[in-house]
From TrEMBL:
<feature type="domain" description="SOCS box">
    <location>
        <begin position="381"/>
        <end position="422"/>
    </location>
</feature>
<feature type="repeat" description="WD">
    <location>
        <begin position="210"/>
        <end position="251"/>
    </location>
</feature>
<dbReference type="Pfam" id="PF07525">
    <property type="entry name" value="SOCS_box"/>
</dbReference>
<dbReference type="InterPro" id="IPR020472">
    <property type="entry name" value="WD40_PAC1"/>
</dbReference>
<feature type="repeat" description="WD">
    <location>
        <begin position="252"/>
        <end position="284"/>
    </location>
</feature>
<dbReference type="GO" id="GO:0035556">
    <property type="term" value="P:intracellular signal transduction"/>
</dbReference>
<dbReference type="InterPro" id="IPR015943">
    <property type="entry name" value="WD40/YVTN_repeat-like_dom_sf"/>
</dbReference>
<feature type="repeat" description="WD">
    <location>
        <begin position="314"/>
        <end position="348"/>
    </location>
</feature>
<dbReference type="Pfam" id="PF00400">
    <property type="entry name" value="WD40"/>
</dbReference>
<keyword id="KW-0677">Repeat</keyword>
<comment type="pathway">
    <text>Protein modification; protein ubiquitination.</text>
</comment>
<protein>
    <recommendedName>
        <fullName>WD repeat and SOCS box-containing protein 1</fullName>
    </recommendedName>
</protein>
<dbReference type="InterPro" id="IPR019775">
    <property type="entry name" value="WD40_repeat_CS"/>
</dbReference>
<dbReference type="InterPro" id="IPR036322">
    <property type="entry name" value="WD40_repeat_dom_sf"/>
</dbReference>
<keyword id="KW-0833">Ubl conjugation pathway</keyword>
<feature type="repeat" description="WD">
    <location>
        <begin position="166"/>
        <end position="208"/>
    </location>
</feature>
<feature type="repeat" description="WD">
    <location>
        <begin position="358"/>
        <end position="378"/>
    </location>
</feature>
Amino acid sequence: MASFPNSVNENEIGKAKFIGELLVPVAPFDQKSGRETWTVAFAPDGSYFAWSQGHRIVTLVPWSKCLKNFVGECSNGAGPQRLSRQNSEGGTVVPVGEPREHTIDCGDVVWGLAFGSSVPEKQSRCVNIEWHRFKFGQDQLLLATGLNNGRVKIWDVYTGKLLLNLMDHTDIVRDLTFAPDGSLMLVSASRDKTLRVWDLKDDGNMVKVLRGHQNWVYCSAFSPDSSVLCSVGASKSVFLWDMDKYSLIRKLEGHHNDVVSCEFSPDGALLATASYDTRVIIWDPHVGTVLLELVHLFPPPSPIFAGGANDRWVRSVAFCHDGRHIASITDDRMVRFWTIDEKSPKAIAPLTNGLCCAFSTDGSVLAAGSRDGSVHFWACPKSIASLQHLCRMALRRVMSTQQVQTLPIPPRIRSYLSYQDL
């Protein structure tokens, strides 16, 4: 079996531009802790990059400095960014210098990472807000870490201070995700078969337990408007949750093996899920239909073979912020860059033992973590989005598929706006 169809010449596929890597320093860490980089994350404002480099350690790197070291100059030509921070206990705003690199010892193996930033207008759901211990300012930047012992620890990114220690899971916390609306609602996905919703503006109190998975939960992702949560795990189903009612909307069926990664497109109109069945499926989350399949093994395997231990497990998928590019990490030692209007990769790059990936905030760089604790970076293939695509994204940010279908417009345009032409 091959990684590409017979109609595609691998030598003619573009090669992604490698721009740098971050390696784990040689140090006598506790050997009972793993070396794997299970997760990588970029801060919402692009100020920091974080990765779990193994051995209980999370490293925070100023992204502009990191990128400058890779390419020789800042991509935007700007000087060092000046930051200010508000003390999380309600103190005054204290000016600080440029972001600095530092490490955090989390006390156990780190499986999940997520950055969160606050919007003061987003109030806590708790009535007694005056009793809160922490008051997060607009420039507050938090890092949540999910640990091997089932705990979730919340850190102040600028100081490295531990703010909260959330204890309720009974097994590994595999993934974390903040609501993108600035409400500091945090969802943790665990091997204890549950998702738990935490309100950090209410001192980290747990709001709800989402039950429905019959096995480990691997990953979760919010829609851009924070109204829907997608969760996937050690089953063939994709779960969609209403985060206003904390209820299950629907389950999407189509994968033949464990589903391990998921992410919404920037306009919320598409949902990408990666599975051990060698495929990435692009769904319409509003109606639950399959729009596109990105295949990593040819000829496509039968459901029985795809459901077993094949050598093309897809480990991670990420949506670029331009809404057009998708990256996937697979066990065939390859990173693939796709576009939503093509069924074969636009660019590829070699990567041994890749585990996770994430695009930078501006979508220009892909970071991928591996089993040896290192992180590798590639430039996202450059292309100019059409005016039609930009208009489609703007419209789909505020309209669901059902609303688009009711518009009095020609069927061809309606199909384009619904992404049915993929």
